[in-house]
Amino acid sequence: MSVHHGFRATMTARPGRGDEVIALLLGAPSLPHPDCVVFLVGRSAGDPDVIHVTEGWTTAEAHSAFFATEPAQTLVAELQKLITGDSQYTDEVPVGGKAFVR
Amino acid sequence: MSVHHGFRATMTARPGRGDEVIALLLGAPSLPHPDCVVFLVGRSAGDPDVIHVTEGWTTAEAHSAFFATEPAQTLVAELQKLITGDSQYTDEVPVGGKAFVR
Questions:
Q1: CB B18 within 8 A of CB B56
Q2: Residue pLDDT, tens place only, A61-102
Q3: Is A100 in contact with B1 (Cβ distance < 8 A)?
Q4: What is the residue range of A58's domain?
Q5: What are the tens digits of pLDDT across the range A44-67?
Q6: Which of A12, A35, A47, A48 lies 20 to 30 angstroms, CA to CA, from A83?
Q7: How many CB pairs under 8 A join A and B?
Q8: Contact, B68 vs B87, CB < 8 A?
Q9: Choosing among A54, A57, A63, which should be mutated to test the B contact, i.e. which has the most B CBs within 10 A?
Q10: Is A99 close to B102, i.e. CB distance below 8 A?
Q11: Hey, which residues does A29 pair with through a beta bridge?
């Protein structure tokens, strides 16, 4: 499937709460969503509370529709409790490659 | 497979050469390599000459061994001709997720 919408978000967990943020993200309702083609969670090796998510969606509309759902908003609310400050966003649209991280 | 080594590189293609850089990266010898678990190519929507690669490897040793091979060094040399300035690296180790971009 091709990707026409994407972004990368970097967030900082409250001190020591990085594992909880990772667990929330790896259980995100985006992952099984058919229009979510890329959902890659990464972490800083130097600071395990700095966490990145790179997302790629078939369309911006599909992402917006998903983001308005209750599961998505629940995830956002849960994340807000665990992170400090605002997430930073980078303009990145995934174009190809692989990721089979288990 | 789990990832114990990773990074994210951001490079800027010479003006208008972004497509060639993407093509080189999507043909990179890293992609079929069994120790390369994540190789995600992304591109700025705002500036198609800004290109990102997020890599995840089973170990740092596996990556170093691969990087010393002729195919890897040939890729680096080819990329050097197409990019301007130095690539910027971000400390990111992929921890989970999916990417099936074709």
A1: no
A2: 999 999 999 999 999 999 999 999 999 999 999 999 988 665
A3: yes
A4: 5-85
A5: 999 999 999 999 999 999 999 999
A6: A35
A7: 148
A8: no
A9: A54
A10: no
A11: none
